[in-house]
Amino acid sequence: MTSIVTNTAAIAALQTLRSVGGELDQTQNHVSSGLRITQASDNAAYWSISTTMRSDSKTISAVSDALGLSAAMADTAYTATSAIVDIISDVKAKLVAASEPGVDKAKVQKEITQLAGQARSIADAASFNGQNWLVSGVPMHLAEAPALTDNLISSFSRSRTGSVSLDTIELDLKASSMFNSDGGGLLQKDPPPVFNELPPTVHDNFRPRGSQTHTLAGPATFGAGSNISFRLVVDRSPEEATGQVHDIAIDQAAVNAAIGSNTISTPDQWERVLEHVFANAGAPVDVYSTDPYNPSLPYLSHFPGSFTIATRETSGLVGSSIYLENVTTNLAGTNTMGLADTPYSNYDNLYESATTSFNGPFTLAGGIDLSFTFRMNADDPVSVTVTEARVNSTLGITTGQVNSADELAEVIRAAIDDTGMTDQGLEIRVSGSELTFTPNQDFYPGYGGKAAVFEMTDIVSSEGWSLRYDLDEIDLTTNTYSTDEYIRGVEHMLTLAIESAADLGSLKSRIDMQNDFAMELMDTFDAGIGKLVDADMDWESTRLKALQTQQQLAVQSLSIANSNSQGLLQLFN
Hints:
Layout: H1 8-33, H2 44-98, H3 105-125, E1 127-128, E2 131-132, E3 135-136, E4 149-158, E5 164-172, E6 179-180, E7 202-204, E8 211-215, E9 220-221, E10 227-234, E11 244-251, H4 252-259, E12 263-264, H5 267-281, E13 285-288, E14 290-291, E15 294-298, E16 306-311, E17 322-329, E18 345-347, E19 353-357, E20 362-363, E21 370-376, E22 382-386, H6 388-395, E23 401-402, H7 405-418, E24 426-431, E25 434-439, E26 454-456, E27 460-461, H8 483-533, H9 537-570
Parallel strand pairs: 3-6
Antiparallel strand pairs: 1-2, 4-5, 7-19, 8-16, 8-18, 9-12, 10-11, 10-17, 13-16, 14-15, 19-25, 20-23, 21-22, 21-26, 21-27, 24-25
């Protein structure tokens, strides 16, 4: 049907023209931008992936820049370290030459001084971007300092969950520092030796039976009604506060029964009287006024006129002691025959022990440790080692430093626990700066002759040779160290410097490989992103020509459709 109101042909042509125009605009955009996905509305999933990957590619580019900076620092440090290795080799050669007879050591020393100064100058100059891996400013000896590291950015990664992280390469600056402001660099001396900080252990194996020695106060005559009474306590100890108690009374009858007289004039007579009353009381003690191995001599040859009361250690108690208490007398002049006087000597619950003193803080570092061995009775010897790791874990530190006698006792106890003994065999007591090692009475009860046989070696350091001078302290003109000792020390420095150069060379190689990988990874990302969003220019250009032709045809179609209405109007003329 033909209508003068609605031109359906023109409408159809116009719709076609609009459709072709939209497709033509899109294709022209693809051609001009080179992308088939330029915004989220084109393809939300691919646009999101490509945008994220572009961001990661930029980050990896930044990582590559950081790797370039790290490579420059590694190159600087390696070059300087290699130069220092050559200098130390020259110093060693000079020292070897100086060991030859007739060589003027003063002249050689001048050369060594210049070489040492050059090594320091090179280390100071090995700075890049304000960082120097060969010189540090730690305010303590590096061996006593906590970890000293520098973290270099090495890579960027994204996990499946979308979380991102930067990986780093850790550089141990202690292993590269040639000099430190407070010592400890590779060309500087080791910390003070541990051995000199701990004196040898003093071992006391003096554990005789418990006894008291008194001076006889006499002579004395026991008349009718005369009496001396006291309480004899045998084998009282910290484990048994009561001990074995015997109430003793000495009267005229007892004296006469013991010596056939009522007057006591000599230590020998008093010995027999005491033996008599002790035997009647069932007291497990012995009395001596003469040497039991040589009765012609006093019991204490340097203290004549004395008598000793000693436990037989047959009471069944762990203690080994003698106590005289509640001494009373009605003899003339209140004479107690020496029983109430302060003992000349008193052996009370003795057992073996070993003692050492803490003379000041020391540090276990660089593989140095302390060790000792102890044995109880017939038990196998127990070897104990105190390491830097044990010090740090026990005291909750990282420096390996022991600052007090209490700290030393604490780490030794922990080291004993490490042996499986759980501190049961050895007890450590601290008094001021003194440590005393004794058998633990909970596991080895007994005093005097019943005490545990205790043996202990000195606490010694594993430290052998250590470097005692800096490179710039070498002086052949003095007798501080021999030429051989200097050669040994310089060889030690050379070994450390070579190891440092090897570490830096390995680091440089790793940085270069990581940088190459980062560049390849960015190329791979670009290729992957291109596959997602890049336009196929061959296809797009062909489509562009086709759409341009379709547009021309649509315009012509619209023109024809509009001309049809002119033919209809002519019918009414």
